[in-house]
Amino acid sequence: MARPTYQRIADDLRQRIITGTYGAGERLPSRQALATEFGVGPRVAADAVQQLVAEGYVVSRTGSGTYVRPKPPIRRLTRSWYREDRGGSPFRADMQAQAVRGGWESSSETANAPDDIAGRLAIDPGDEVMRTRYTFTGDDEPVMLSTSYEPLAITRGTEVVLPEDGVHAGRGVVDRMREIGHEITYASEIVTARPAAADEADRLGVGRGTVVMVIQRTYFTEERPVETADIVVPVDRYELSYMIPVGRD
């Protein structure tokens, strides 16, 4: 019978953590103890533990051992049209409601729209867009990521061409588009889940392969879409709450 590989040992240990066999803050068996349990060499056991460190399930403490990483408290992100309509940043409003200091870092650049983004914005592939990458933070810790695209055919030459620069910086898409005569009337969101890409995991401070929610959001006026974004949220930190108005208006 073949000896288990470090991936198989990591799978077994990961399952024990997920099911609560090893609780938050609990010390894992030593490398030697794992090597004995699984019938492998200490190097293989060490590689399995290192895999879990890379994925964010455990943390190593020099001279002490390896411990199950405590789960952060789950906070709520509210997806609600009334928050958008009253102005300002919906994200900052969510953070304030939970007594968390919200903020973000961003960088903008002109880019050519790839096929999928062009389809969402109803423009031709290769048309110029303003692409803005965000890292949102709560109490200075990364919370979620967003990559936003706005057609330059709409914003070029206006004072809102750079979402986070100028007199209307940080006011949110709805307010900014209103300033240049585009009244947003509704938004579409599609929510999926997938493992985090390597750069996303690094920016969020989570383990490689951590599952994230991806919100594909697009804002529309009565005539056309004016902004689309991919929002990436770790599922072990946040839950989504949708508030949907019901009525005739």
Automatic annotation (TrEMBL):
Keywords per UniProt: DNA-binding, Transcription, Transcription regulation
Domain of life per record: Bacteria
Domain annotation HTH gntR-type: ranges: 3-71
A Pfam entry, by short name: UTRA
Cited InterPro entries: Bact_HTH_transcr_reg, Chorismate_lyase_/UTRA_dom_sf, Tscrpt_reg_HTH_GntR, UTRA, WH-like_DNA-bd_sf, WH_DNA-bd_sf
Name recorded for this polypeptide: GntR family transcriptional regulator
Protein's organism: Nocardiopsis mangrovi
